[in-house]
Each structure stands twice: as structure tokens, then as C-alpha cells.
Design brief:
The chain has a single domain, classed as Glycoside hydrolase/deacetylase (TIM Barrel, Alpha-Beta Barrel). It contains 8 helices and 15 strands. The strands form 5 sheets. Strands 3, 4, 5, 12, 13 and 14 form a 6-stranded parallel beta sheet that branches. By secondary structure, it is of the alpha/beta class. The termini are far apart. The protein binds zinc ion. The site of zinc ion has 5 residues, from loops.
């Protein structure tokens, strides 16, 4: 009997260690997903996509008015939180759905990493898979309620994902929108740096910037840099018009 209990103890210990190992395997370090536009149907390779995150915070009206004046299309990743706080911004976007494709940035801007205590840039992630599902699906519902158009793309807060989270987002039916040029580093860069980064843009690039910090230099930097891109003969497209392909092992510029 004693022997049998010992054996059970060691068996349970072994099982515990194995489960622990599996749990730490599931908690892969988060990665930034880097994408470019698929060039399958575009041999000229002259398309670029501008994506703007509306995380939480305010509405950068100057930036959106600049895009409207210059007929530059963009894909907006908005959270439910941002939509609720910025009804005027939403009204302006909705008046120009020919230019703006509005996609899912989650319900509450929680990074797509799963596990108690995990953080990205200091922002806590999701405690478990159920919370991740809620973040993605409630974000999608908010976009559809606000615009009448269901989203097909998802970008998590901070644009970093662990493997379990990215697998689940895709299983829910959403494509993950990475990027290849980080134009404003979370709306922290000055005008000249933004213009400099936009000079690196080539056909196929996906630009990320922000439209939730009107006091930043983002509107000024993009206004100057995007006009230069147009002058170079590149054409802006929305993500609902193209597919993206993941570029592995190449850091975003
Ligand atoms: Zn964000």
C-alpha cells in the first residue's frame, strides 16, 4: 500500500511537472507581427497601406481632415473604448467610409498575451483565453454597431501577440494586421523623425501611426511625409482591398 501511494505521488509529481512545462510552452514571448502587402495581383508593386490606431484617448481631427482633403484612404483600428469617448470623431469617419475602413482594435485595448501577470510595455495582458475572446469579439461588435460594417482585420493593443493568442484570433475568423514601417512610435516622435521614417516607405509597405493623440506631432509629420509618398507615385490602399503576407525575421523599419 505504502509503495502504491509512493508511486501515485511520483506519478502526480511527474504529471504536474509536465503540465507546468506545457503551460510555459503556451506562454511564448510576445512578438510583433511584420507584414507587407501581397503583390500577387500588383506587379507594379506601387501600393502602400496607411493604418492608424485609435487606442483610447482623444481624436486627432487635424490628421483625419488632412486625409479627407487629400483623398488619402486609411485603415483605422479603433477600440470600443475610443468609439464611446469620441462620438464626433466617429461621426466624421462615418461620413467618409469611402476613404476609411474601420477595423477591430479590441474592446478595452488589452494586449493579446495570455497569462496572469503578463505585460507588454507595462500594459497588463489577458488573464485567460476567455478574456481574449471577449476583447476581440466585443471590439468587433462595437465596430459593426457603430458603422454597420463587420470588421475582418484585428490588431491587438501594442501590436504584439503570443502564439496562443494569435492562433485564437485567427480561429475566431480575423486576419491579424501587422505592419512594416512604424511611423510615429506610438505618437511619440517629432515631425522631422516621422518624415524621415516615411522616406523609407516603398511599394508593399504597411505604415502604422496613431490618431488618438492630437497634441503629438503625428498629424504634422504625416501631412508632410504622406504628400512626399504621393509625389513618388505610390498609391494608398485600404486593408479591405488587399491581403498581407508575413515577413519573418526582418525587423520593421
Ligand atoms: Zn493601440
Amino acid at each position: 500500500m505504502r509503495k502504491c501511494l509512493d508511486r501515485t505521488f511520483f506519478w502526480l509529481l511527474g504529471l504536474g511537472l509536465a503540465l507546468n512545462g506545457l503551460a510555459s510552452m503556451a506562454q511564448t514571448p510576445p512578438v510583433e507581427i511584420h507584414d507587407r502587402i501581397s503583390q500577387v495581383s500588383n506587379p507594379m508593386n506601387n501600393r502602400v497601406a496607411l493604418t492608424l490606431d485609435a487606442c483610447s484617448g482623444k481624436f486627432d481631427e487635424d490628421l483625419i481632415l488632412f486625409l479627407i482633403r487629400n483623398r488619402i484612404p486609411a485603415t483605422i483600428f479603433a477600440t470600443e473604448k475610443w468609439l464611446l469617448k469620441n462620438p464626433q470623431g466617429l461621426t466624421l469617419l462615418k461620413a467618409h467610409l469611402d476613404l476609411f475602413d474601420i477595423e477591430d482594435h479590441g474592446e478595452n485595448h488589452i494586449p493579446a498575451v495570455i497569462g496572469a501577470g503578463r505585460k507588454v510595455y507595462g500594459i497588463p495582458g489577458e488573464p485567460d483565453m476567455l478574456h481574449l475572446r471577449r476583447e476581440v469579439l466585443e471590439g468587433a461588435r462595437a465596430i459593426e454597431d457603430a458603422t454597420g460594417v463587420p470588421p475582418h482585420w484585428y490588431r491587438g493593443a501594442t501590436a504584439e501577440y503570443d502564439q496562443a493568442a494569435s492562433d485564437e484570433i485567427r480561429r475566431l475568423g480575423y486576419k491579424i494586421a501587422g505592419f512594416s514601417v512604424n511611423a510615429d512610435a506610438g505618437a511619440t516622435l517629432k515631425r522631422a523623425r516621422i518624415v524621415e521614417r516615411l522616406r523609407q516607405v516603398h511599394g508593399g509597405d504597411v505604415i502604422i501611426a496613431h490618431m488618438n493623440k492630437p497634441k503629438s506631432d503625428t498629424a504634422e509629420g504625416l501631412s508632410a511625409g504622406l504628400i512626399e509618398i504621393l509625389k513618388r507615385g505610390l498609391v494608398f490602399v485600404r486593408l479591405d482591398e488587399v491581403d498581407l503576407v508575413e515577413v519573418k525575421g526582418v525587423p520593421a523599419r
